[in-house]
Amino acid sequence: MIIFTIPKPFPLLNHSIGQSRFALTGMRRKMARAVADAALHLRPSEPLQRAHVLIERYSTGTPDTDGLYGGAKFLVDALTTPRLLNVRTPGAQQRVKNKRGLGFVVDDAPKHMTLEVRSVKCRLCEQRTVVTITEVAA
After folding, report:
1. Which helix (H) or strand (E) holds 129?
2. Calpha distance 70→18 (Å, rounded)
3. What is the pTM of this model?
């Protein structure tokens, strides 16, 4: 079981809607950096093949469910493992899926990860994001 805390609540989906692709890239980088700062020393030597990920967002408000799950996307992407994509034409540039992934879980596909996101109402000084990754036996 891997548990770590990010000092701020992750941004909700409403915050990223309408942003430019450059702003979204910055948000992805910030999230990957926050996860790395909080949990890089907890990373397993091999990515987990199957895992249950629980993300608890402690904040002063209670967001709607679709905004909560949509906002967790950048955090979930930071937990996955980077993977080279197939090159279809010879000489084309190699592309990487989840290039900012830190290698906690193989992929965020349903066969590798079950996701649960909760919102917890708290005081302003207690805001944070708690991530719990539990390995699931195959």
Report:
1. strand 128-135
2. 14
3. 0.85
